[in-house]
Amino acid sequence: MALFSVKMRSSALGSHISGAERIVEEREVPDVCAAMGTRALAHGKGKPDSITVTVTAIDGEVAHIPALPIREAHCADPAEARETVIDALAPLTPHAAEAWELLTGVRDMRGAILFHATTGARLEPDHARGVRVTSMDAATATGERPETHSGKTRVTDALVLASKVAHHPAMLAEVCFSDDPDYTTGYVASREMGYLRVPNMKPVGSEMGGRLFVVDTDDPADLIDYLEHTPVLVGEAK
Ligand code: AMP
């Protein structure tokens, strides 16, 4: 069955306001375009003066992968969150503490840091921007689509992204926390540990936020191509 990628981006006076992406069946395309337009117009960051919706047929098969199972850590404050994340990364890299310092020191990146597990070096070509993961969605059959779970959109979008990311063999782990000052729960994820929600990664009101991928490759070109371009549908956890 042919699938379509539907992407939306909106801006005002040339600066980005919001973006969204779905991978859907042909019959869903009109409704999804309408829903994206509505969402763009209602965005909290302000009224866009430009909304672009792009619909592209996807060539060939789309990979279906399972969602990572969700677990929950108990962290009372950012110090405990730091310990939880470093403990999770320690078996994968001798530079776990440096990864934490790097992640909590960056500002306003649009994408993720690629952190070389063996050396602790940064591998992403553009350090200011990072690598952006796109071309993914929740599988229709799972009932996990963000629009069916009002109020849970953030976890679902993040889980879809984390599941796609963890699936690549060169990916060892991901750590993320939002730059939204009201949202302090982050996560650390990998194929082995699943998606571990980490509360209190930062103090309420802080505008810190970022994403970091711990990777095991000297040449990240294939990995970056997978993250940016390979379409993936994420189904229920196994
Ligand atoms: P958010 O959870 O959307 O607040 O994003 C937290 C951080 O993750 C942002 O500051 C970005 O650095 C990064 N990020 C957001 N979206 C993506 C994406 N699609 N791919 C890679 N990194 C992202």
Quaternary class: single chain
Strand order of the largest sheet: 5-10-9-8-11-6
Helix and strand run: EEHEEEHHEEHEEEEHE
Strand pairing plus helix content: what structural class?
A: alpha/beta
How much helicity do the residues have? Answer: 10-25%
User: Which whole number gives the mean pLDDT?
Assistant: 91
Number of self-contained structural domains: 2
Gross morphology: globular
- Strand proportion: 25-35%
Bound molecules: adenosine monophosphate
Termini separation (Å)? 24 Å
Largest sheet: 6 strands, mixed
Radius of gyration: 18 Å
DSSP helical segment count: 5
Low-confidence stretches: 141-153
Number of strands: 12
Family: Belongs to the BioW family.
Subunit structure: Homodimer.
Pfam families: BioW
GO molecular function: 6-carboxyhexanoate-CoA ligase activity; ATP binding; magnesium ion binding
